[in-house]
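Supplementary Methods, section 5.1.

A reviewer requested that the exact input to the structure prediction be made available. We therefore reproduce it here, unchanged from the version used in the analyses.
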Amino acid sequence: MFPERRMQRIRQTGSSLVLGIFIITVMFAMSTALLRVLEDADDNVNLEVFGIRALLAANSGADAVLAQLFPPGGGAATNCAAVSNQWTPPDLPGFSGCQVTLGCNSATVIFKGKTMHQFTITSSAICQAGQCSGGAGGDSNCLRVNRIVEVQARDN
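The structure derived from this sequence is encoded token-by-token as follows.
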């Protein structure tokens, strides 16, 4: 009856199957990319939190050295002999996994007949989560952040 219509139907069969497979493949690729973006965002938030924790731990270590050099009752130190090279953070959730190393250098300057003592305090804090030992015992989820604070102070 209508031979041309019959030929068109035969040529068009199966095209929707190819189109469906293409759409499924594109959707799979897009969902995989979205999951990677979300995972990277989580890692960035963790780095930001641990970076702030390390910075605040280093600030606290520098404050502890300043308290040793310039005690509240007066009588400032003239050199760094009284300063320890380690500060143990308190056992609080914000400081867990953090270690603070301290350094102090002093110089005595005579300016216009007046003796001044100048101190350079370095506080380095490392905060970590997971097993960061490296090698076979290391953890693939190791997170380690280091922040260094340097403070200068002088006694007139």
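The helical segments are 3-12, 15-69. These observations are discussed further in the main text.
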